[in-house]
């Protein structure tokens, strides 16, 4: 089979497409013919050896896929030909993958493979962040940084499903329009965003900030929170891990909350199935609408990661593995 491989930790330019043996599924694993694979920030970090998980070279990136079941173990409720999405941790940028059955989920008939390839990690991360970690309540206001990207649009939609008002922070007017189309109630530009948020909330501030960007925004994110607000730390796309001024937490009784879905589900392997049930309900209610970004062929994986790296992406970037 064909697979994208990282041959050295030199970033996207080190990616090559090679012929490799098909995987042999282990106990409890589902063999999947991949139609679409998600492109995510962990993939970019892994090509540079900067992610928490450091696979041995050479390896295939890719943590989420969608396709059809070739073979499934008994007791999973899955059978050959079923349309599924799956989380694979690593190795998803290939024509065939073996995925743990507890991380493999049947797709709704109306959801495309491209949409399915962007649901597992982004929407489950957003669900963990907002429903469980932030304890979001209906009527609260959620601010989302990087709101035009894959995790950003997922966060907007999950927040709306939970009954919250949403404010998107984006870098350009085009991205503001994109975020609104994805479900944001309001959008402000990153330049001067704090003043814009204060105006939108009548100086009250927001209840929750979902921040996958980090860097210089964190201090203003704390300033944007109302009393007993919660800041969700989802990543550091800006490239710098900021310091947290503890006095800001004390004065307004603020919580700073870490969110690491991949680590949590290693210990709670049944949790993703619970999340999938909630997400399917959101989908049926019309809240969950996967936002397709650019699509690239498997051979163009370096360009897909470059699009993510230069912060030009809107929606969920995917690789098309099969038509």
UniProtKB/TrEMBL annotation:
Residues 7-319 form the Enoyl reductase (ER) domain. InterPro entries: ADH-like_C, ADH-like_N, ER, GroES-like_sf, NAD(P)-bd_dom_sf, Zn-ADH-like_protein. Gene3D superfamilies: Medium-chain alcohol dehydrogenases, catalytic domain, NAD(P)-binding Rossmann-like Domain. Signal peptide: none annotated. SMART domains: PKS_ER. PANTHER family: QUINONE OXIDOREDUCTASE-LIKE PROTEIN 2 (PTHR43677:SF4), SHORT-CHAIN DEHYDROGENASE/REDUCTASE (PTHR43677). This is NADPH:quinone oxidoreductase family protein.
